[in-house]
Amino acid sequence: MKDLKNIANPFNDDKVSANCSIFGMMNLSGTTFSGKDILTAIKNMRVRSNGLGGGFACYGLYPKYPDHYALHLMYNTREAKEISENFIDKHFFITRAEEIPTKQIKEIIDPPEFWRYFVHPKTELDKNHYDDYVVEMVMTINTQIQDTFVFSSGKNMAVFKGVGFPGDIGRFFMIEDYTGYIWLAHGRFPTNTLGWWGGAHPFNILDWSVVHNGEISSYGTNQRFLEMYGYKCSLYTDTEVIAYAADLLMRRHNLPIEVASKILAPPLWNTIDRMDKKEKELYTSLRQVYGGLLMNGPFSIVIARNGEMIGLTDRVRLRPLTAAVNSDMLYISSEEAPIRLIDPNIEYAWIPKGGEPIIGRLSEKKVIYNEKLTLQDLNKEA
Amino acid sequence: MKSYLLPEFKIIRDDDRCIRCQVCVRQCGFGVHTYDEENDIIISDESKCVGCQRCAVFCPTNALTIMTNPYEYRPNANWRKEFINDVKKQAEGGGVILTGCGNDKPYKIYWDHIVLNASQVTNPSIDPLREPMELRTYLGSKTNQLEMVDGELKTVLTSQVMIETPIIFSALSYGAISFNAQTSLARAASEFGTLFNSGEGGLPKELRKYGKNAIVQCASGRFGVDPEYLNSSAVVEIKIGQGAKPGIGGHLPGEKVSIPVSRTRMIPEGTDALSPAPQHDIYSIEDLSTLIYALKETTNYEKPISVKIAAVHNSAAIASGMVRAGADIIALDGIRGGTGAAPKIIRDNVGIPIELALAAVDERLRKERIRNKCSIIVAGGFRNAGDIIKAIALGADAVYIATAALVAMGCTLCQKCYTGICNWGICTTDPWLSKRINPDIATKRLTNLLRGWSLEIKEMLGGMGINAIESLRGNRHHLRGVGLNKWELDVLGIKGAGE
């Protein structure tokens, strides 16, 4: 999108606000399952969206191409497709290109065209820099090429999203036909813009996908902090800022998710003051160095990357979030009802404390909550 | 020579109320009031009155009204009363006109043209009486990244100084202000968990116990500077310039150099204490770097080094150089910053408003990606918590206040600080006048001020839906301009109201 700023933020507001429903589910053993359940779940929270945006992210989707960057693009015009494909061809080796199948339904009006490309970077850079290269190319397409937008660019994952209620978007993309071991869903209620297809959520960069419900009062601080690290916030949304923060902290600075979540939602100073020396030093340093990434104001988010799903609220928990577990399954949702709707036998459901992340980790096959509690502990408590 | 100047103030005494107690006679250090015993009347020589209101405040029967003398010359938009009188003064004295306090000219005060945001509907405001609200701030250079290996923190930050509110007492030197006044500032800073600044006159031995809360200055006169002084502090500040008098030095008259002042400043009693205009070992940026590292060596890299400059045209570029030269803190002092003594022509005409300097410096350091490497403290005429919170949203880490602190202790901005006489006991070393500051009371007045402003900052933060001050730092989205031109909005990096 050449005039991305005008499309994403047509009224030149400080930022684009939206309130939303969010839902995430993960199989901790890595067993894949279809999008049928998450579609049911997100439809159950219809009143949390207003028909101006819905979307899904799925991990473990392309087992045939696990090492390829899977670029998912939307095109508003034929010309856009031509220019973009030339660009992609110039900067990537394309192993496979195909149109993303969709089903015409009456609720979805005038959709763009969708294509996906399984690619490797065409560059002499060292492998370690492939991610940076892909980020740069995605940002170039998103800001330089007219009528095009990259929905997702991670490996073995995809984002499907658009303008409409999430239930309709799900049917349009036929997500019931896909299987993955992590699914995210989002229903959007924008308060100051009309929807556009690229502006729907999940927001993705590389591996990271974010669904978010909230309104971050610290946006200006977060945005200016990220700009110092080369991120251009072109969509003017909280979600974009959270995705970049996750990318900076966990990919570039290599901090564990447990630590990163304490940067986005840090403990209060008087809590830090009571910690033992070593912990106190760590948490003080985190706030000193990354204070600009404190997400202040109400939010609840679910972030996913390959092998991990994380739920988090702001530190005083001004937006709802419920988590639940049932054997291998972890659910994180705005509300408890949709969880019980798709899995009436859940063993344990709880409302996490403000700022305490819930982490589902494939490699350890467990849920980590409140640092010490594991899935086993939670089951015991239940 | 007969003076052609008329008195600046008019003293009206209600004779029905006056009980001839002579409080006014004793309170006025300028000798305005005298008692004529024979006729049982008090005579007031208005030509000596500076309008400090000390006599009026202490008059037990409220018999005195001190007001601006309402005399008028023929109205003239160009030759205003002030300029006519200044010419007369110089025709009679032939010198540079001295003055005290900050610039009183009607330059645009940008704080008065910036409004703050508040949460409505889409996100909740936060009630600071019920929810935590954090003002704690750390001053010092930060890294761009923390490194962790196997859950262990590997990065060690250079020294950081914690303040519980982003309000610090600015430089007020001993000698310029009285011992009791400096003691009160030190005690208030220590009680509240913030910092005071020794100014360039050294730190009296008696106050070194408050060193944890002290910023000590190393200025061009190097008064009282030795390793013990430097190491007694929390922060060492190199003073390059001052907002009230950018580009020139200082002069403490010998009359104010009493024995204790001479001991603290390490100069002979009764000699003039002259601060040269430049630091004579800093003629370039690399010289500054040398001094910064000399001070770091002396203090074993345990203290952040601040560099204070007056806000001038190229502040942004200068500040960038200062950070690259190793400064951990950049202190900017704007055109409305105060002083104990400055040539009036300099105070009133040199420098730029702090709002614009701050916005430009913060933006430049961010563009150069070195904003994390330093903290920014701003100074220069902060009048209330509203000004302070706007400064933080523009990008400051903390704010220096000096004039407001003096006002809290009694100052009424009569601008006669340079005379050595201060009826409020603040800006004087006269032992009789100095006693008028009771450190217990003055400390209380100062901590009350810090408390009041901190509470107000919390209220405003909560209103914006923010519960930690770092989430407002540089968050210009929460600011809007009213009545500003496009270039002003651009420099401030804010939108106009309604945009």
Provide a brief overview of the structure.
By secondary structure, chain A is of the alpha+beta class. Helix content of chain A is 29%, strand content 29%.
Can you characterise this structure?
The complex is a heterodimer of chains A (382) and B (499). With 382 residues, chain A is of the alpha+beta class. Chain A has a single domain (4-381), classed as Glutamine Phosphoribosylpyrophosphate, subunit 1, domain 1 (4-Layer Sandwich). In chain A, 29% of the residues lie in helices and 29% in strands. The longest helix of chain B is centred in the last third of the chain and has 25 residues, at 439-463. The model of chain B has no long low-confidence stretch (mean pLDDT 96). Chain B has 499 residues and is of the alpha/beta class. Chain B has helices at residues 23-27, 54-58, 81-93, 179-192, 227-231, 259-265, 285-298, 315-324, 344-349, 354-367, 385-394, 403-409, 431-434, 439-463, 486-492, and strands at 9-13, 33-36, 41-44, 64-68, 98-99, 114-116, 137-139, 148-149, 152-153, 161-163, 167-169, 196-197, 214-218, 235-239, 250-252, 273-275, 305-310, 329-333, 342-343, 375-379, 398-401, 479-481, 495-496. An 8-stranded parallel β-sheet of chain B has the order 11-21-20-18-17-14-13-12. In chain B, helix 8 packs across helix 10 (354-367). The chains are: A alpha+beta (382), B alpha/beta (499). Chains A and B meet through helix 6 and helix 10 of A and loops of B.
Task: Please outline the helices and strands.
The complex is a heterodimer of chains A (382) and B (499).
Chain A: H1 4-8, E1 18-27, E2 33-34, H2 36-43, E3 54-59, E4 69-75, H3 78-91, E5 92-99, E6 113-121, H4 130-144, E7 148-152, E8 157-162, H5 166-172, E9 179-180, E10 182-190, E11 203-205, E12 208-214, H6 219-227, H7 238-252, H8 257-264, H9 269-272, H10 277-290, E13 299-305, E14 308-313, E15 322-326, E16 329-333, H11 337-342, E17 348-350, E18 358-361, E19 366-369, E20 373-374, H12 375-381
Antiparallel strand pairs in A: 1-10, 1-16, 2-9, 3-8, 3-10, 4-6, 4-7, 5-6, 11-12, 12-13, 13-14, 14-18, 15-16, 15-17, 18-19, 19-20
Helix pairs in contact in A: 2-5, 6-7
Chain B: E1 9-13, H1 23-27, E2 33-36, E3 41-44, H2 54-58, E4 64-68, H3 81-93, E5 98-99, E6 114-116, E7 137-139, E8 148-149, E9 152-153, E10 161-163, E11 167-169, H4 179-192, E12 196-197, E13 214-218, H5 227-231, E14 235-239, E15 250-252, H6 259-265, E16 273-275, H7 285-298, E17 305-310, H8 315-324, E18 329-333, E19 342-343, H9 344-349, H10 354-367, E20 375-379, H11 385-394, E21 398-401, H12 403-409, H13 431-434, H14 439-463, E22 479-481, H15 486-492, E23 495-496
Parallel strand pairs in B: 11-21, 12-13, 13-14, 14-17, 17-18, 18-20, 20-21, 22-23
Antiparallel strand pairs in B: 1-4, 2-3, 5-19, 6-22, 7-10, 8-9, 15-16
Helix pairs in contact in B: 4-14, 8-10, 11-14
